[in-house]
Amino acid sequence: MPKLTVSTFSPDWGLPTSGPFALKLLKWLDLANIPYDHVFEDVPSKGPKGKSPWIEFDGERIGDSEVIIELLARRSGFNIDAGLTEEQRALSHTLRRMLEEHFHMLLEWELFVHPAGIEAVRGMAARVAPGIVAAPVAAMICRHFRTQLTARGIARHDAATIAAKGKADLDAIEAILGDKPFLVASHPSMADLSAYGLLGPMAAWPMPTPVADSIKSRPGLLAYLQRVAEAKAEARVAA
């Protein structure tokens, strides 16, 4: 394999990165046992798609965690979902889309629109913007996300409705998980990595926000996230 460099947001909340899709990618790389150089970059506009994470690999700069994983899976021969039944693959795909397209909006709302999240963003901005510039940068970031979330529809609801939508997603994840170690199989699948990427930051951040607090109140869900975090390369299913 050619040299791989991965650019992500900086670590925060005890996690190797604060970015949900970067967290998913890093966990996949660990399970695939693929070595990489880790670069912290808190300005996502520097990436090829203007978002975090991205990689430099074989002379190319590539963005989007799903595209990156598909490429590296082909090149390495590691397929995390090898061995899943057709029904398990379908369930994994459905869970990923719920988490990455719907639940992701709830994470963004709690981080960039909820007052407790906005306060945290001010602290993050202070890390990357000098002195008096930090507060305007934080305000600009939060306005950007509020506009995006309004356009996508979620921010048109009141706070209680948004929280209820997030908790309904958590209820669905818990129901599917049941007493199994992982969501669709006895080993982690892509659905588990998406869940870890999206729920992991909210379970770890200290800000009191409704959906994050709901995650923290569910011991079974917390234990599940810890299992994904601690999963080793030996648990993988090779292609």
Describe this entry's structure for a reader:
There is one protein chain. The chain is α+β, with helices and mostly antiparallel strands and 239 residues long. It has two domains: 4-76, Glutaredoxin; 86-234, Glutathione S-transferase Yfyf (Class Pi), Chain A, domain 2 (Up-down Bundle). Helix content is 58%, strand content 7%. It has nine helices and four strands; from the N terminus they run βαβββαααααααα. The protein has helices spanning 20-32, 65-76, 86-112, 115-128, 134-152, 159-177, 190-204, 210-216, 219-230; strands spanning 4-8, 37-40, 54-57, 60-63. The protein has a four-stranded mixed β-sheet, covered by helices on one side. β3 (54-57) and β4 (60-63) form a beta hairpin. α1 runs parallel beside α2 (65-76) and α3 packs parallel to α7 (190-204). The longest helix has 27 residues, at 86-112. The protein is globular, with a radius of gyration of 18 Å. It starts with a strand and ends in a 9-residue tail after the last helix. The model is unreliable at 235-239 (pLDDT under 50).
CATH topology of the largest domain: Glutathione S-transferase Yfyf (Class Pi), Chain A, domain 2
User: Can you tell me the residue ranges where pLDDT is under 50 for at least 5 consecutive residues?
Assistant: 235-239
Oligomer category: single chain
Overall shape: globular
Strand content: 5-15%
Largest sheet: 4 strands, mixed
SS element count, helices:
9
Alpha-beta content class: alpha+beta
Rg on CA atoms, Å: 18 Å
CATH A-level architecture of the largest domain: Up-down Bundle
Work out the count of structural domains: 2
The CATH class designation of the largest domain is Mainly Alpha
Secondary structure tally: strands:
4
Strand order of the largest sheet: 2-1-3-4
| Termini separation | 16 Å
